[in-house]
Specification:
The N and C termini lie far apart (about 30 Å). A three-stranded antiparallel sheet has the order 1-3-2, with helices on one face. It has one domain. A hairpin with a 7-residue loop joins strand 2 and strand 3. Helix content is about 45%, strand content about 20%. By secondary structure, it is of the alpha+beta class.
């Protein structure tokens, strides 16, 4: 999986991944209607994403809030 990239336009999934310690490689704003967040792909990503989407994960609330604020800042910065 080395050098592979996982992209998503799901804002809250991206915030969750950031709160879990995964770094955003890029926020692609080329389409003015949506932002794609790119992460280095990692072992177990498919399972983690599935568990997030089905509400089977837990996250530290303050870390999640901080991640949301960071993503908003990234989206709205020049």
């Amino acid at each position: 999986m080395e050098n592979e990239v996982f992209k998503t336009k799901d804002f809250y999934l991206s915030a969750f991944l950031v709160a879990q310690g995964h770094k955003i490689l890029e926020a692609d704003r080329s389409d003015p209607r949506k932002v794609f967040f790119a992460f280095s792909d990692f072992e177990g990503r498919e399972d983690l994403v599935r568990r997030f989407l089905f509400g089977q994960t837990k996250v530290e609330p303050q870390g999640f809030i901080t991640s949301i604020k960071s993503l908003k800042q990234l989206i709205h910065s020049g």
